[in-house]
Specification:
- By secondary structure, the chain is of the alpha/beta class.
- The chain has three helices and five strands.
- The protein has one domain: STAS domain (Transcription Regulator spoIIAA, 2-Layer Sandwich).
- Strands 4-3-2-1-5 form a five-stranded parallel β-sheet.
- 29% of the residues are buried.
- It is globular, with a radius of gyration of 13 Å.
- Helix 1 packs parallel to helix 2.
- InterPro entries: MlaB-like_STAS, STAS_dom, STAS_dom_sf.
- This is STAS domain-containing protein.
- It comes from Phytohabitans maris.
- It holds the Pfam family STAS_2.
Length: 122
């Protein structure tokens, strides 16, 4: 995974930043996904959208990372949205009670003013 945008110094804020996950989101790919999410957070978006349509699985490490990023964003008044998880992933998120904490939307929701920083394949 490589981020295609570099954050600049100083107060930057964009309305929406999107990250697309593909493959399994588990311990084996945590480092590149964390890097992409850190880059996105440094852009100071009002909302960070993690598109999970291409994600086929998630483990406890992936869930923990999403919750960490959620907390980081809350501290600066921003939000995290998980978009388009498969029914299987949605079930896992529901069992982990992540849906009670994070904003999860079932399908692609059109967003204006967005910045895409890349794909995070696992």
């Amino acid at each position: 995974m490589s981020a295609v945008a570099q954050p600049v110094a100083g107060p930057v804020s964009v309305p929406v930043v999107e990250i697309y996950l593909t493959g399994r989101f588990d311990l084996t790919c945590l480092a590149p996904v964390r890097s992409a999410l850190d880059t996105a957070v440094r852009l100071r978006p009002d909302r960070l959208v993690v598109d999970m349509a291409g994600c086929v699985g998630i483990d406890a490490a992936g869930v923990a990372l999403l919750l960490d990023v959620h907390r980081e964003l809350l501290r600066v008044g921003a939000g995290l949205t998980l978009r388009a998880p498969s029914p299987r992933l949605r079930r896992i998120l529901r069992i982990a009670r992540v849906e009670q904490v994070l904003h999860v939307v079932p399908e692609e929701v059109p967003l204006s003013g967005r910045a895409t920083i890349g794909n995070a394949p696992c």
